[in-house]
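pinging the channel bc i need a second pair of eyes. not urgent but kinda urgent?? the chain im working w is below, pasted from the shared doc
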Amino acid sequence: MTNPAPVDCWLTDMDGVLVHEETALPGAQEFISELRDRELKFLVLTNNSIYTPRDLRARLLRSGLDVPEDAIWTSALATAQFLDDQRPGGSAYVVGEAGLTTALHDIGYTLTEADPDYVVLGETRTYSFEAITRAIRLIEAGARFIATNPDPSGPSPQGTLPATGSVASLISTATNREPYYVGKPNPLMMRSALNRVDAHSESTVMVGDRMATDVKSGLEAGLRTILVLSGSTSAAEVDHFPFQATRVLDGIAEVVPLVAELAQPVASTD
């Protein structure tokens, strides 16, 4: 068996791994510091398309985590990169907020209601029935349907909120058109992240709290994966999945010593 390559890049989910709401989880600050001290490549990933990397950096700073803006990769950015590769200089009707509209403007896309190439659905705090109806009619008229991520719900201090996947299902039912989801668990999200930091799958680890998105997308992109039990997936649920993470740990604090350990070459047993 080939010895695994030393790890020089870390991808990590944000909510449930580094933070819960506005509070840093135990070990998160030490984890980021260890990566920065060792000058390893890393990205913090999120399927949330509402916020720009600048917004998310400010949120993390409030929780005590100093993550550079260029080390944050969102499903909105991955979606914009995908559309730029597919149809450079295209047009889109967007149901979403600043994180998504800014990402599309930055690649030179025109946002329009008039015969767009794509309808792009992201998360928003207030889904408008009028906007959803317009999206349905544009898709029926021939616009291609893209969604930033398939998450059906998301957390809030008040409780569960409907998210992109739920609204996408509504539009799909009305149009009989399924969207192409760019964010996790699509391994495209991981590959776009690796391209951003010029890293390779064989020397990268993905840390997440969801088996169905973080671990699945990491596995399908050829990464080693670590599931932490500080978020969505519980210990009792792990064995129900037909695939497994490389390691299962209680939280990000247990990952900190692995940064140094996995950065070392594995001695050959031949």
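so The first strand starts at residue 9 and ends at 13. and Residues 9-47+199-263 form a domain with the Rossmann fold fold (CATH 3.40.50.1000). — does that match what u expected or am i reading it wrong
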